[in-house]
Amino acid sequence: MTNGIDRVQRSRLAASGLTPLFDAVVTSESCGYAKPDPRILDVALKAMAVIPHQAVYVGDDPATDGVAAAAAGVRFVWMDGGRPISGRRPRRRVGSLAELADLL
Q: Would you call 75 helix, strand, or coil by DSSP?
């Protein structure tokens, strides 16, 4: 799920070889909603046939990703990448994919 242009995001996934690892790709362009609007999460959840409490949203921006997740009733994990943020820090934070695997 991304606030991005559909063809750009899909070409990035294809170029990286990651396309087969995703069951669904939801872009703001394709669904008409952009984060922090929680409806983009609703589209992604429906595409994956899961309900909010079964999902975990990992994002790098608490102001858009975290707000959207909270409004949609989805648990949020902040992938901080060493970036400082202003405002309230999310309860769950990881700095790497290895940390995320341990958390999940």
A: strand
